[in-house]
């Protein structure tokens, strides 16, 4: 069922042999990095990035090398940096699209450029598409697997975001590789052996997956997209009223956005972590400090909330910033 679902957006057909079921996308991430780990190996991660990647890499002994996402270019990948960072020990490049924590959605052309670079460097791409199809801007969602004939792709995903059931812990790890490079190099064989020792999600949830993927009404998806779009606009509009926080790029998808913290405008706030701790204590509003995702003195704001709650939260953030603004 998952192979059929993902094949809808690909120029080739996946089979059930390409799909492995995981306990959420977090386990899929761990499997991907475990399969690639070897002495002296390194992996290229975006900055900012979902922090589980760095934690898994450290646990598996993979060296992390960071390439920047460019806020003034819609958080596109710094392609030149990838070529500088990669060497003979680089095993993979991670792409998160739609983006967490930035809210970006990459164009077909940008993804093609990334695939071409990966092919040139002879490294595979890990495509984290846990927010797949949650796009509400100018760019439609394009799966990285579309370029599987150019470069082998490990596609990671789950039910948690598009169907809004994170507690079900049902994810997938998929080899999108029509050229068969994973099979020829016995990568798939090793993946199967590793999955033999892993615990998967509850079987009754697995049994529901075909119905969920095939029968969910499009109205459900449209409603989710409309809510997220409305919430993202509220978030950006209210942030414009707060001088010490700026949004360099309006979110186009997913459920979060990165905001720049202008510390010189604030009194008795030392950095993004200090800002978030004091905000939580004084206003009971939780925002993730950018340091947690690799960007110091930035903020990751989640807009996956009902509009009324989001409005209230941002009013509190504004009040907090006004109290801590320097008076010159």
TrEMBL record:
This is Aminotransferase class I/classII large domain-containing protein. Belongs to the class-I pyridoxal-phosphate-dependent aminotransferase family. Coiled coil: none annotated. The lineage of its organism: Eukaryota, Viridiplantae, Streptophyta, Embryophyta, Tracheophyta. Residues 1-316 form the Aminotransferase class I/classII large domain. Keywords: Aminotransferase, Pyridoxal phosphate, Transferase. Its cofactor is pyridoxal 5'-phosphate. Pfam families: Aminotran_1_2. CDD domains: AAT_like (cd00609). It comes from the Eukaryota. It comes from Hevea brasiliensis (Para rubber tree).
């Amino acid at each position: 069922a998952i192979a059929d679902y993902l094949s809808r957006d690909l120029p080739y057909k996946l089979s059930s042999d390409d799909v492995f079921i995981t306990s959420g996308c977090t386990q899929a991430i761990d499997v991907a990095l475990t399969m690639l780990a070897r002495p002296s190996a390194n992996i290229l991660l975006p900055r900012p990035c979902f922090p589980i990647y760095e934690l898994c890499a450290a646990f598996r002994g993979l060296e992390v090398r960071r390439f920047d996402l460019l806020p003034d270019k819609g958080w596109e990948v710094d392609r030149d940096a990838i070529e500088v960072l990669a060497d003979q020990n680089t095993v993979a490049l991670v792409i998160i699209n739609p983006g967490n924590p930035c809210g970006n959605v990459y164009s077909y052309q940008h993804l093609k450029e990334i695939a071409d670079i990966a092919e040139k460097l002879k490294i595979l791409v890990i495509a984290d598409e846990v927010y797949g199809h949650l796009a509400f801007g100018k760019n439609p969602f394009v799966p990285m697997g579309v370029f599987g004939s150019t470069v082998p792709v490990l596609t990671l995903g789950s039910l948690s975001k598009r169907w809004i059931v994170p507690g079900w812990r049902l994810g997938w790890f998929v080899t999108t590789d029509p050229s068969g490079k994973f099979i020829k190099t016995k990568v798939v064989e090793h993946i199967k052996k590793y999955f033999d020792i892993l615990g998967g999600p509850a079987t009754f949830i697995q049994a529901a997956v075909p119905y969920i993927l095939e029968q969910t009404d499009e109205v459900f998806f449209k409603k989710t997209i409309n809510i997220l779009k409305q919430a993202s606009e509220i978030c950006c509009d209210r942030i414009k009223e707060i001088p010490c926080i700026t949004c360099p790029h309006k979110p186009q998808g997913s459920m979060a956005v990165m905001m720049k913290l202008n510390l010189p405008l604030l009194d008795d706030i030392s950095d993004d972590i200090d800002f978030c701790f004091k905000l939580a204590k004084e206003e009971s509003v939780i925002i993730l400090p950018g340091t947690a995702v690799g960007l110091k003195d930035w903020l990751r704001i989640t807009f996956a909330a009902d509009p009324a709650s989001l409005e209230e939260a941002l009013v509190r953030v504004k009040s907090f910033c006004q109290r801590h603004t320097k008076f010159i």
